[in-house]
Design goal:
The complex is a heterodimer. Chain A has 13 helices and 2 strands, in the order ααββααααααααααα. By secondary structure, chain A is mainly α. The N terminus of chain A is likely disordered. Chain B is globular. The chains are: A mainly alpha, B mainly alpha.
């Protein structure tokens, strides 16, 4: 009977919705128009600018459909291109390694402290991104505690530094995007019924097998979402490289920034931005297909 | 010895979580401690305890102008992005319509585009159209990148609502508007509040996109970044630490309110 009742009301609900089919479009219109004007249109402009060439004065360019710009830009900055994806990949793997056990502990071992621990995970968001990164610079820097201790016990030599190295840049990226990794992981782990894990144990699976065959597959949506939310901003970031790195650890973001503001070469900057976006979209699409997580989008 | 080993392996995950939290909190604690540093303008090395940075947070030149600008931009963008995003979230969560998957894609794409590309493309457009960059262009940009995050947050809340509650209201002769105002909106409100907080923190903390769209004006993140070369004044740590405590207070109050409401029902 209850089933019948639900059936009836959903029908009523449905017919009500169909009568007013204009409503969803009215709700969508303002936001989607905003996104079209200030997201889609600028991206198209970026594409158009990327094939322009200089026209006399500095800062002025004319459309000549010069697709060679892309090849030139790529060849000039291919090292930073490669480095951006390398650092972003390393930071994503490190963040996953740190965040997975953390999210697991919060989801299954924290009892009534769960909410407090979740707030602690997002706590870094409450201070400024830049202040955090600068704090790392000073902690790992020349006069900071880490270097002094490591030098005192002779793990590193007197001239070795931690900042101004790729290591510092990857550390900064890992740290800054860690909440983006932890929260989706927690969300998907928390949804797992603990009885499924107990059932695996009852069927003589040891801890590792239970994790591999039950917990990990069930938490895959969180892994996919977390890795994407870390990898995408990390690959376009240039703050960490600017503050914690040296000229040899510059990422693509630093190059784009320099082309815009210092060299005033908009076509090259646009071509690089466009390539970065397309490369990320291709990687993300392949990754989502591969992991079968289409429903995330 | 064996019992120590047993305790260790039993609590391995807790020890790991403790270490992870230590890592998370190191720079925050560092920022708070150095807000009390008597280090003069650069605040690089510890020179002694003082309260004078807290007594005079506007002591560093331009810092409070920058803070005020960031608050203005953050509040304006949050209001607009929350409204626009919530409307989209309701359309997606409550209605069947044609063009649903392209709408989802249009919401997802800005989140999958690195900030530097968003900033660069907006600047390219503003230059192309001869528009001067400043506060308005920055607010436009912030609304744009906050909308998607609002949609995702509110949509999750709308989707988790039991549709039978709305049906019950209609069975009790509430019309559609009354149902929305008295039933749907109060139930979705926590999601909207969370989305607004997220939008504000994204906007307030943004440097990369802002740097492209703000022109010669200054915001708090821009102030921190430009002063990073000579050393950030301790007043910036005071503002960072205050933001930390204010946000913490908001979250705790929200949690308490939520649990009170739960116990009432």
């Amino acid at each position: 009977m209850a089933f019948l009742h639900v059936q009836k009301t959903t029908n009523k609900f449905k017919s009500l919705k169909n009568n007013r089919s204009l409503i969803p479009y009215l709700l969508l219109a303002p936001g989607l128009i905003w996104l079209s004007i200030f997201f889609i249109f600028p991206i198209l402009q970026l594409g158009a600018t990327s094939t322009k060439t200089p026209a006399g004065e500095i800062g002025f360019f004319e459309q000549t459909y010069r697709f060679q710009n892309y090849i030139d830009a790529f060849l000039a900055s291919r090292e930073q291109f490669y480095r951006s994806f390398l650092y972003a990949t390393l930071a994503t793997i490190l963040a996953l390694a740190i965040a997975y056990p953390l999210a697991y502990a919060i989801a299954f071992k924290s009892g009534r402290y769960k909410n407090i621990l979740l707030v602690m995970v997002i706590a870094p968001f409450f201070t400024s991104f830049l202040l955090r990164t600068i704090a790392w610079k000073q902690i790992l820097g020349e006069e900071g505690p880490v270097v002094s201790v490591l030098r005192a016990i002779s793990i590193i030599g007197d001239t070795t530094t931690i900042t101004a190295t790729p290591f510092a840049v990857v550390t900064g990226l890992t740290y800054n995007f860690l909440p983006f990794m932890t929260l989706p992981l927690y969300a998907s782990l928390e949804r797992i019924d603990p009885r499924t894990m107990e059932a695996a144990g009852d069927l003589y699976a040891n801890g590792l097998t239970t994790f591999r065959k039950v917990t990990l597959p069930l938490s895959m949506p969180g892994v996919v979402a977390g890795t994407l939310l870390t990898f995408i901003p990390a690959s376009g970031d240039y703050i960490n490289a600017a503050i914690l790195g040296d000229p040899k650890s510059k990422m693509l973001g630093n190059v784009i920034d320099a082309y815009y503001f210092r060299i005033v070469d908009y076509p090259t900057a646009a071509a690089l931005s466009f390539m970065l976006m397309v490369a990320i979209l291709i990687l993300v699409t392949l990754y989502i297909r591969r992991t079968g997580a289409e429903e995330l989008v | 010895m064996r019992s120590v080993k047993r305790w260790f392996s039993k609590n391995l995950i807790r020890i790991y979580a403790f270490l992870a939290f230590t890592y998370i909190f190191i720079p925050i604690i560092y920022t708070i401690i150095f807000s009390f540093n008597d280090g003069g303008k650069s605040n690089l090395a510890w020179k002694g305890f003082t309260l004078k940075n807290w007594a005079n947070p506007c002591g560093a030149p331009e810092i409070c102008t920058a803070l005020g600008n960031s608050l203005k931009i953050g509040l304006t963008s949050t209001i607009f992005a929350t409204i626009l995003g919530t409307l989209i979230a309701f359309a997606l969560g409550r209605y069947q319509f044609k063009g649903r998957s392209s709408t989802n894609l249009l919401i997802f794409l800005p989140m999958a585009t690195p900030e530097i590309v968003l900033g660069a493309s907006l600047l390219t457009m503003f230059i192309g159209l001869g528009i001067d960059t400043g506060f308005v262009t920055t607010i436009i940009a912030h609304i744009m990148f906050c909308i998607s995050f609002v949609v995702v947050t509110v949509k999750a809340r709308v989707a988790s609502l039991d549709p039978r509650l709305e049906q019950a209201a209609m069975d009790l002769y509430a019309n559609e508007w009354q149902t929305f105002r008295r039933v749907t909106l109060p139930l979705v409100a926590p999601g909207i509040a969370a989305a607004a907080l997220l939008a504000f923190s994204l906007s307030f903390d943004d440097y990369i996109i802002t740097n492209f769209t703000i022109g010669t004006e200054i915001t708090f993140p821009k102030f921190v970044f430009t002063s990073a070369i000579r050393g950030v004044p301790a007043q910036a740590n005071v503002i960072g630490a205050s933001m930390f405590f204010i946000a913490l207070a908001i979250v705790i109050v929200g949690q308490v309110l939520a649990s009170k409401r739960k116990s009432k029902v």
